[in-house]
Amino acid sequence: MHPALHSWRDDLPSVLIRLLAYLAAAALLSIAAAQYFQSKNGITAIDPADKRAWIDIEKPFPAFALAIPEAADAPSSYAIRRHAEGNGRKDILTLGDADGIAPYLSVEIYRPGTEIDSFAAPETEIATSAKPLGPVNVVRSDEPLESKFGPLTIVTFATSVGTPRQCLAFVRAYPDPRLQISGWFCQGGENGGTLVERSTLSCALDRLTLLSAGSEPKVGALFAQAELQRTYCGQRDTILAPTPKYKVLWKALETRPEPRRIGR
């Protein structure tokens, strides 16, 4: 047999073995790459961070009302949010412009589900819920504010987003039924605005009423008891109850004369 032919035949098995090894390695790399990218896509699809914790109800059916006729021409809104997993519910009522010098009142009634074990500290609650306003200088007051819902924990803060304003915030939590009432009353003005008077906040919350408790009789009992504690903005008589506080806030701010300055 020719020597050259003998050499080629001897080398053929080793060449085939190397070729098969290369093909096997390439196949393994392809499978590994496919598994890697498929896993990445799967993780992204179920990433909890992509899920919205709270979902806005498109057509909310109001369960509460904040009746302040003196501010009838002020913008108002009612929103209901449901927790996607815990089924907690937040009813949010607002009155006034969210970004303006005029007064802005926001009230939230939170009935938690399984999404939390306990309510957050008042200052933490306000800092979180008022995040769109950019709350700064958040300070908890040592003195509670009396209201028809009992003593309210008071927290003050200034806004850093939009029109500079000073805000008087409040929090009141109940263990049974598990319910929390919170919110804030803001207004602007010179030098970043001035705080709303405590009595005005209490008077505004005097107007917060229940429309429907649904299947939660304990919530109905809570608001019924609150109505017994209602002061009608300082007077027990509903006919004689004064309303100037609201007119000052929603009617007179734009026409209020500038304060006198010493030396003018």
From TrEMBL:
Protein name (database record): Uncharacterized protein
Taxonomic source organism: Pseudolabrys taiwanensis
